[in-house]
Amino acid sequence: xxxxxxxxxxxxxxxxxxxxxxxxxxxxxxxxxxxxxxxxxxxxxxxxxxxxxxxxxxxxxxxxxxxxxxxxxxxxxxxxxxxxxxxxxxxxxxxxxxxxxxxxxxxxxxxxxxxxxxxxxxxxxxxxxxxxxxxxxxxxxxxxxxxxxxxxxxxxxxxxxxxxxxxxxxxxxxxxxxxxxxxxxxxxxxxxxxxxxxxxxxxxxxxxxxxxxxxxxxxxxxxxxxxxxxxxxxxxxxxxxxxxxxxxxxxxxxxxxxxxxxxxxxxxxxxxxxxxxxxxxxxxxxxxxxxxxxxx
Length: 296
Ligand SMILES: [Zn+2]
Description:
about 35% helix; binds zinc ion; CBS domain Like; about 30% strand; 2 domains; Hsp33 domain
């Protein structure tokens, strides 16, 4: 199965949708981590959710979903990001112990979800919501309802290897230019149809088959699939600026203790090493890239 998202529009119903399926993207996110199954499932759901939400924003930019777990939570942090411009994703999670079964609210107990949109130009946006007992899909439905005033239905699924999602969103009525009044039941009817979707179907059947099975009686315009891929945004320059952000004292302390400063990218596993000469260069020069080795 391919990694892609696909937009759909229900003609004359002011309802839009998006379906996403992730396979290799999820494998790449999990590749350098031995995530317990429950954490991998949560990451997969979050990646699918980020791809769905990215499709609802109009601007290019980076959309992030970040969960900070409460103090006692098994998963203390979970972050997925997607670039709207090129459809590349990355994600990571921090956990303690052996998180058992459970969804978002159990694994990240007492936590909060931040939705951040950093557009290429203009104002950064962030919305923060508490976690719904019903899981990530319910949490995001609540976010759309309360923050965006857009009735939204989300179905998210992940079996640890593949992830999938279906989003349906009722758009504000188009002011009488479209005959929404002729089909007042459309939102409820489409919702009932979507409720028959099973996790297994979403994860194992091709998207076009899923959409046909669910909505073949509706007038739906389905757009070309958009390919999604894993790609990290780390670089020697970014890591250098993180080191500068830590401050000279801390970096030099690590150097004194370890003989080398090693930074491992949490998203892709790339390791950046800085010896004494590199550190001096990084700390003294705010523009030049450090002469560090990079290896995977
Ligand atoms: Zn990286």
